[in-house]
Write a structure and sequence with these properties.
heterodimer, A: about 140 residues, five-stranded parallel sheet, 6 helices, about 50% helix, B: alpha+beta, 24 helices, about 45% helix
Chain lengths: ~140, ~900
């Protein structure tokens, strides 16, 4: 069973993610702030992490950095959940090492298929392709604007 | 001119060599001719040397007595030859010859007359009791011999037919006791130079031997006399040469005109053995004393102011270039009485004036030698004088060339100094003042004036010297006077002696002060126009030498250049002052660096923007001053206008919008750079803050929207059967998040109203205590406490305030939200209110991250969020405290904060208490 860690300071968002991911048969672990998120990632070893960016204290960027610095968590794909819509924020997420980003507000029903297809592609060893795809997608968006 | 001296030396040496050779040849001839003659005599004694009948027939030469006699006579001739030839003084030579001959031939009278004719013998000897010859007629036989150019022998005066022709001759001869006479012409190299004659008081036929002997003696005398004459002539020439050599030598020694003239005077006095001498040189119309040797003070004084008219003949001699000899001045009517009186007074009798012409000068100088006693001037004296004149001429010429060179050199040095002084002068008036001081010094003149053209008039703009300074400001038509002539002709005008010029009237303001000489040159203005006239004046007449005129022209050139410079400088400095004033008042920082990158300009705005004072910046590179280069690293951005550059100003980062321009010299090389910049830190901060605000608002709006949209979509799922409880929770979130969204929108609306200035405040009497309690309860209820704990500190009695309850709620909400948001680790949030005189104070205290002191002033600004907050990713629009402040102010209150970083913050606001 796919295990998803949701790190967000907003309780409603965590609930939203849990309800909709569990409905698709995934297990959900929650963390309300950065430090507990990092801790849970190490302890629980989730398959994927949904990470909010704007959190008081330790923000999402630094959480991602800590996770990617740690051997135990380096391999866990991170999907940023962010209300920061600017391109530079999205680019930053990819730069840090995220595999994808989801901009708030999002349709919670699409969350589980997104996570699943990502994991499938990662299983097929397409991690680099995925990143390159996301970057070119971002570039196209930026250029079209 | 040493070459001339050497050349003159060679000529003199050559002359001397020729002369010496001539003497040697003469001597050789003198030696050989007598021998030949005597041999001729010996070999052909019979050959008649005199007319028939005048000579006896040959004697009996076979007798040994006769032979002995002949030998004796030969010996006599040899002896007398030796005597006369060893004698170089003609008088002595003649005396010896006649005495010896008379003795040898036992005659009573013997004499010699030199020259073809003459009244009396040059030398004569007679036996005691015999009358000397004193009459021309007593020389009848001699004259005959001269006339015939052959020996005349008269055995008896009474009967001699030769005396028939000259009337009274016989009687005259007889009267002096002469009965026999023998006259032999003295001929040397075919030239008859005199006659040797013998008289006897008894009639007696002259023997052939006697005749031969006399002829031989005559021959000897002739040769010796000629040799002696040659020697004497030579001696004389030698003497002259020596004198001239000495003069030439001393004249060659010193080259300056003064020294030459002094030497000339001394040499002239020495050579002609005069008592003293003077050299007069032409000056203007007259002549003045230029040098003297041993001149009595009185005479020097008389000559000092020029040659007096009483000796005008001297000036005439100089002008005509002829030697004037006055053996006795007091009896010479060419001189006027006063000059004659002066001669007597200073103690001279004769004078010799020798012109010394210089090819450069129009008129000659005059060397005057004075002699203590009366003096007849011999040909030799005059010849010497002539040669002295030539030597003087050469010396003067040489010296004048030297002087010209020296003057030109001195002038050019002086000009260079003057030019240097003028070049550094930057005030036009000071340039003119400098020129009128320098010009007289340059030319040895006494006054100077600069006239500048102003509306067809020449105005004396600067002047120096007596009579000139008073004329400053005087105006005259540009065509009037000497300077007018200079101006119109655009060429120099030099007048040596105004007294000698017919043209001069009172047309020059300065001349009327009594100046005698004038030199004016045109003064050019910019672009070849004529600006005026530069003129100098001298009290005494003088020659303006060509190099002096050139020098004044050069000075005029310097003056023009200096004036142009000075004018340029004043306009440039005016321009500069203007620029400086502009630069000082401009808001942009302006910095100029030279080609080495050193700062040469640093205006007030640059000081303010960079925080570096001008004094510390000038002379240093921007790297030294600002710790960074201002110059753009690549050409493209350099020319493309504005660049963004950051600097550190006392720890703060300052952002500059900078543009750059390259200054190039006329050859196109980079001569420096100018940077213009303005401080856009504030603009940049606003930009930055706005961008953050947009991001924050975006987050603040998107977060509740995500919940509302997400739960709505979730509830719409058909595939998941949610329980009632779940649905209630979902809908609860939708409701609360909608409320949150509304709040944010309200905030934004408030801001919009505040910006528009139409914030509505409805003040009324409210109880602050109950407002606070209600709000605390509602927050606790909403579940937003997030691990925090409220502590409420309210007094018992109501706290009535004059305020708008909605606005107070908003403010309180903002403070509480902040307290919760910025104390992420939880803790106590203390909320209190109290009465404070006529104010009511509310405070919200947290145990959160606190606010750095530097940020405490800024947090109430619009869009501002504490840096630490933004960095930590805390949510918020950055509007809350701004809105709170504006609302409190609108209600007549105030808001403030106390905080310790890391320990928490205490926000307070107070409002007017409601009147009882």
């Amino acid at each position: 069973m796919t295990k998803v860690l949701v790190i967000d300071d907003e309780a409603p968002i965590r609930l939203l993610c849990r309800v909709n991911l569990e409905a698709e048969g995934m297990a959900v672990i929650e963390a309300a702030d950065g430090p507990s998120g990092v801790e849970k990632a190490r302890d629980e070893g989730p398959d994927v992490i949904l990470l909010d960016v704007m959190m008081p204290g330790l923000d999402g960027w630094r959480v991602a950095e800590q996770l990617l610095e740690d051997e135990r968590t380096i391999g866990i794909p991170i999907i940023f959940l962010t209300a920061r819509a600017e391109f530079r924020d999205r680019a930053r997420g990819l730069d840090i090492g995220g595999v994808d980003y989801v901009t708030k507000p999002f349709n919670p029903l699409e969350l589980a298929p997104l996570v699943q297809s990502l994991l499938d592609r990662l299983d097929r060893g397409e991690r680099d392709d995925l990143r390159a795809e996301k970057l070119s997608e971002l570039r196209t968006l930026m250029e079209s604007e | 001119m040493p070459l001339l001296v050497i050349a003159a030396g060679y000529v003199a040496l050559a002359a001397w060599a020729w002369l010496s050779l001539g003497i040697l040849v003469g001597l050789a001839v003198a030696f050989f001719v007598p021998v030949v003659t005597s041999r001729r005599r010996a070999e052909a004694p019979q050959t008649p040397a005199a007319p028939d009948g005048a000579r006896a027939s040959s004697s009996d030469d076979s007798s040994s007595a006769a032979l002995a006699e002949a030998l004796e006579r030969e010996r006599f001739i040899a002896r007398i030859s030796a005597r006369v030839r060893s004698e170089l003084a003609v008088d002595e030579l003649l005396r010896v010859a006649i005495e010896e001959t008379a003795k040898e031939l036992r005659v009573q009278r013997c004499f010699i007359r030199l020259g073809a004719r003459g009244e009396s013998p040059t030398a004569q000897w007679q036996a005691e009791g015999v009358e000397a010859i004193h009459d021309r007629d007593q020389l009848a036989v001699s004259n005959l011999a001269v006339k015939k150019r052959q020996t005349v022998a008269v055995g008896d005066v009474e009967t001699a037919p030769e005396l028939e022709q000259s009337i009274g001759a016989r009687e005259k001869l007889l009267a002096i006791g002469t009965r026999a006479a023998l006259a032999v012409p003295i001929v040397v190299f075919d030239e008859l130079i005199g006659v040797l004659a013998l008289h006897r008081t008894t009639p007696q036929r002259w023997t052939d031997d006697e005749i031969a002997l006399t002829e031989a003696v005559a021959n000897e005398i002739g040769l010796s006399v000629r040799v002696a004459q040659l020697l004497r002539e030579n001696e004389l020439r030698l003497l002259q040469q020596t004198t001239l050599f000495r003069i030439a030598a001393v004249l060659g020694e010193s080259l300056s005109l003064t020294d030459t003239l002094d030497t000339l005077a001394r040499a002239a006095a020495e050579a002609l053995k005069g008592a003293f001498a003077a050299v007069l040189t032409p000056r203007g119309a007259t002549m003045e004393l230029a040098a003297g040797a041993g001149l009595p003070p009185k005479l020097a004084e008389a000559l000092q102011d020029g040659l007096p008219e009483s000796a005008d003949c001297l000036r005439a001699a100089a002008d005509d270039r002829h030697v004037l000899a006055s053996p006795d001045v007091t009896r010479d009517d060419r001189f006027e009485q006063s000059w004659q009186a002066l001669a007597q007074e200073v103690g001279y009798a004769a004078l010799l004036a020798i012109p010394a012409a210089s090819p450069r000068a129009e008129r000659s100088a005059l060397v005057v030698v004075f002699f203590a006693g009366e003096r007849e001037f011999t040909d030799e004296d005059l010849e010497l004088a002539r040669q002295l004149g030539d030597a003087a001429t050469a010396a003067l010429e040489r010296s004048e060339l030297f002087e010209a060179e020296r003057t030109a050199r001195a002038l050019s040095q002086q000009l260079a100094r003057t030019g240097g002084a003028l070049a550094t002068e930057l005030d036009p008036a000071a340039v003119l003042e400098e020129v009128v001081q320098q010009a007289p010094a340059l030319l040895g003149a006494d006054a100077c004036a600069v006239r500048i053209l102003e509306e067809d008039e020449l105005v004396i703009s600067a002047a120096s010297g007596k009579g000139a300074e008073e004329a400053i400001g005087t105006r005259a038509a540009a065509t009037a006077g000497l300077s007018g002539d200079v101006f119109q002709s655009r060429s120099p005008l030099a007048l040596d002696d105004l007294a000698a010029e017919a043209r001069v009237g009172g047309t020059d303001e300065i001349l009327s002060a009594g100046y005698a000489a004038y030199l004016g040159v045109p003064l050019s203005g910019p672009k070849g126009t004529l600006a005026g006239v530069l003129s100098v004046y001298a009290w005494r007449p003088r020659d303006w030498r060509p190099e002096e005129i050139e020098a004044l022209l050069a000075l005029a050139g310097n003056t023009s250049a200096a004036l142009a410079n000075a004018e340029l400088y004043s306009s440039v400095s005016l321009e500069k002052e203007r620029s400086v004033a502009i630069l000082a008042n401009i808001a942009d920082g302006i910095v100029a660096v030279d080609r080495d990158g050193c700062v040469v300009l640093w205006n007030a705005a640059a000081e303010e923007i960079t925080g570096v004072p001008q004094t510390e910046a000038i002379g240093h590179t921007t790297m030294q001053v600002l710790q960074r280069e201002l110059e753009s690293p690549d050409e493209e951005t350099r020319t493309s206008g504005q660049r963004l550059v950051s600097l550190s100003r006392g720890g703060d980062e300052v952002w500059l919008s900078l543009s750059e321009a390259v200054m190039r010299d006329p050859l196109g090389a980079v001569a420096g750079r100018i940077f213009a910049f303005r401080d856009i830190s504030a603009d940049r901060m606003v930009e930055h803050v706005k961008s953050d605000f947009v991001a924050a608002v975006s987050h603040e709006l998107r977060t509740p929207l995500t919940s509302i949209y997400g739960f709505a979509e979730t509830l719409l799922r058909q595939d998941v059967p949610f329980g009632d409880e779940e649905r209630r929770i979902f809908l609860g979130y939708i409701a609360s998040e909608s409320e949150r969204l509304t709040e944010i929108v309200d905030q934004l609306l408030n801001i919009a109203r505040l910006d528009a200035g139409d914030l509505q405040v409805e003040r009324g009497r409210i109880d602050l205590g109950s407002v606070v309690s209600e709000l605390v309860a509602s927050v606790e209820e909403s579940g937003a406490m997030n691990g925090h704990r409220f502590e409420v500190d309210l007094p018992e009695e109501p706290l009535a305030a004059e305020a708008d309850p909605d606005k107070v709620r908003q403010v309180f909400n903002i403070l509480v939200e902040n307290a919760l948001r910025y104390s992420p680790d939880g803790g106590t949030v203390t909320v209190g209110a109290r009465r404070n005189a006529d104010r009511v104070e509310v405070r919200v205290v947290d145990e959160g991250i606190g606010i750095p002191s530097a940020e405490r002033d800024r947090i109430f600004r619009k869009f501002y969020r504490a840096e630490s907050a933004a960095r930590d990713g805390a949510a918020g629009t950055g509007l809350g405290l701004f809105i709170a402040k504006e609302l409190v102010l609108a209600m007549g209150g105030r808001i403030w904060v106390d905080s310790t970083e890391g320990e928490g913050s205490s926000f307070s606001f107070e409002l007017p208490a409601a009147r009882e």
